[in-house]
Specification:
With 343 residues, the protein is α/β, with parallel strands linked by helices. The radius of gyration is 20 Å and the shape is globular. Bound molecules: guanosine-5'-monophosphate and manganese (II) ion. Manganese (II) ion binds next to loops.
Length: 343
């Protein structure tokens, strides 16, 4: 695998001649997944490449405004699947965005992408990246994949102005993955990248409004219910968690993305260092973990929840009914008492 962070001179020649390129991002795509993918999609398309942008499943409605969103194909629709299968056959470069291993595509799309025979490139900021790619442009210090895509585009097109629609997409990735610049991952470089996006015509107030001030009443009422009735604090473990059953979600006409950010309310309780959202999803429970300081939730997600992510934000799953998943979570908390009370 060639590390394009240290050998960035190799980047322009990868894109010198027109190619057929498949871009993919992770399951339950978020602002960074879709923003970084569309930012790269627009750039490569304009350069003359033939590009397919693919996600395993649908993105939340708060991303519907993104320039070019109609180009995203989703694998869980019959038409999307056909197009993505075709793209896997005819493309000569597969670029993985915002995920560290093909498992993050879900089983069916993972199996399909494993049949791909061309060159592959990983652009990502999650811990423990897969090392079987042809090329890697990876850094766990990047606030977001969108920040890495900005740097990457600046190398492909040195001296060229970033397009305004690309700036809107990349900013969406950065502002969502940094929790609006409040997480430690937002660095001086992140802010320099945002300065570059402003110079490219970014309207940050419009992006913020499109993403954060477009709540449905159902989502706000679900949040109200969660905060009043579903938030449990375990002060002796510096821990807070929320359990959401399928019935809770149904009661508020849940749509993908509606519980985005809920886990941060648990983390915002005074004294809490570790927060978890357990959300019933079919036969499994989706786990979202957040922490403050040096408490490593990526390790906890890997060790106990078949997942992973970053130091302070990670996710995973438990193939159990919700009540048992809650018990398992509480056992994990007890087992890690010293970690939770010393960090
Ligand atoms: P969230 O809790 O918002 O779903 O995820 C938090 C972070 O962990 C995101 O950066 C997400 O990409 C990552 N993440 C979530 N689930 C998994 C997983 O199953 N495996 C890995 N490696 N990362 C995950
Ligand atoms: Mn990300």
């Amino acid at each position: 695998m060639k590390d394009l962070r240290s050998e960035s001179h190799l980047i322009p020649e990868i894109f010198e001649l027109p190619r057929r390129i498949l871009l993919t991002t992770h399951k339950s795509p978020d602002g960074d997944a879709i923003g970084s993918m569309l930012g790269l999609f627009h750039t490569l398309t304009e350069m003359g490449h033939t590009v397919t942008a693919a996600a395993p499943d649908n993105f939340p409605a708060f991303l519907n405004w993104m320039p070019g969103i109609e180009n995203v194909r989703t694998f869980d629709t019959p038409e999307g699947r056909i197009e993505i299968e075709h793209a896997v056959q005819v493309s000569d470069l597969h670029i993985s965005l915002d995920y560290n291993a093909l498992q993050r595509l879900g089983e069916a799309m993972q199996q399909l992408c494993e049949t791909f025979t061309g060159e592959s490139l990983l652009i990502d900021h999650h811990r423990e990246p897969c090392t079987t790619y042809t090329y890697s442009y990876h850094s766990i210090d990047a606030s977001s994949t969108a920040e890495l895509v900005y740097d990457f585009i600046s190398i492909i097109l040195p001296g060229h102005a970033i397009r305004t629609d690309v700036a809107q997409c990349l900013y969406a990735g950065i502002v969502t993955d940094t929790g609006s610049f409040r997480f430690p991952s937002a660095s001086a470089h992140t802010l320099r990248v945002v300065a570059g996006l402003k110079e490219a015509g970014l309207n940050h107030a419009e992006v913020y409004n499109n993403i954060f001030d477009t709540n449905s009443l159902d989502r706000l009422r679900l949040l109200g219910y969660v905060l009043s009735s579903k938030l449990t604090v375990l002060p002796e473990f510096n821990t807070a968690y929320i359990c959401l059953s399928a019935a809770d979600l149904e009661r508020f006409q849940y749509k993908p993305g509606d519980s985005e950010g809920f886990v941060n309310y648990a983390l915002s309780v005074e004294g809490v260092q570790f927060a978890c959202l357990l959300k019933e999803n079919g036969s499994e429970v989706r786990i979202s973990l957040r922490s403050k300081g040096q408490l490593d939730v990526n390790s906890l997600a890997r060790q106990y929840f078949s997942g992973g992510g970053h130091l302070n934000a990670a996710g995973g799953r438990l193939p159990l009914p919700l009540a048992q998943a809650e018990q398992t979570f509480l056992e994990v908390v007890h087992h890690n008492r010293s970690l939770l009370t010393n960090s």
